Amino acid sequence: MDKKRIRIGIALVGVAVVAGAAALLYPQSQPLPVSNTPSGAPSAPAAPQERFAALPSRQAIGRARGEPFGVRSWTPPAPKAPKVALAPPKPVAPPLPYRIAGQVTHDGVMQVVLARDDRIFTVREGETLDNIYRVESITPDAVTFVYLPLDERQQLAVGGLRLEMAAPAALARVNGTAPAAAAAGNTRPAQLRWEGPNQVKAGNDFEVTLKVTSAQPVRALPLQLDYDAKLLEPVAVRPGELFAEGRFTYRVNPNGSIFVGASAGSAAPTDADFVVVTFRPLRSGNAELRLSAVALQGAAGRAIAHESPAAFRTAIVQ
């Protein structure tokens, strides 16, 4: 009886061991679906979707980063050409701010009269203007400037207005004797004369006009007037009708002189006003205005003989 019980126990233990092993080997086993098909009929093959539905899902690899089977070159890319820095443009001097108003020769030294805006001034070779330009040379044809910041040279052509301060033979003498060239041509010298009041009142402005009568065509007129700075003060200087359509510049020296440079648009015989000066009498006395130098020029730049007028005088009263 005991042996029989022992055998039954051993059998039960064996069954338990087999069941445990099966559970370990097939932990995710699902119960087989129950088919409604009669046992005697053959089963239909499962669809592909149903066959792969039971497989476990996998994580996607991701988007392709290139064509794995495309043509590839293992030659390294050519190096990029280095960028060449462009050199900045070379600086140049600005245009000259001056213009030629005339030339003056005094005691053999040539000077030039320059104009800038409303200023007129006389310079010589070697002078420095506005701490930027130096007058390097003055010739009858051109004035050469040096732009000091760049040591660059610039030129201005001379317009042909020349005034000889030391009276040359081309200028007529005060006594009315004409140069030989004028006498040979049997041409009467040009006549210069003053027009103005004989008496003025202190503090009241008045005008003095220099007029010319010439049978020869007149084109240009550089001249210098001297006045008594203790009695007269220049208020305005304007061109006469001869130069109304031409070029006219002037410079007033407070010490008692006025330089005028003028040129007409065309040369023609004339009887007209040359220049008109407005003065203000400062105090009582006998004031005097003199034509200290003048050079009349014709169409070709040749000097025209003339007779210089006597000084203009007026009495200033209180």
Task: Describe this protein's structure.
The chain has 318 residues and is mainly beta. Among the domains are: 99-159, SH3 type barrels; 182-317, Immunoglobulin-like (Sandwich). Helices cover 11% and strands 43% of the residues. It has three helices and 19 strands. Strands 9, 10, 11, 12, 13, 14, 15, 18 and 19 form a nine-stranded mixed beta sheet that branches. The chain has a four-stranded mixed beta sheet with strand order 3-2-1-8, with no helix packed on it. Mean pLDDT is 75; it is low at 163-186.
State the gist of this model:
The chain is mainly beta. The chain has helices at 2-25, 48-53, 180-184, and strands at residues 99-106, 109-116, 119-123, 128-129, 133-138, 142-147, 152-157, 162-164, 190-195, 199-201, 206-227, 232-239, 247-253, 257-281, 285-294, 296-297, 303-304, 306-307, 312-317.
> What CATH architecture label of the domain at 182-317 applies?
Sandwich
> CATH topology of the domain at 182-317, which one?
Immunoglobulin-like
Principal-axes geometry comes out as rod-shaped
The helix-strand sequence is HHEEEEEEEEHEEEEEEEEEEE
Helix content: 10-25%
CATH class of the domain at 182-317: Mainly Beta
What oligomeric assembly is this protein in?
Answer: single chain
Question: Helical stretch count?
Answer: 3
* Structural class estimated from helices and strands: mainly beta
Q: What distance lies between the first and last C-alpha atoms, to the nearest angstrom?
A: 178 Å
Q: What's the alpha carbon Rg, rounded to whole Å?
A: 57 Å
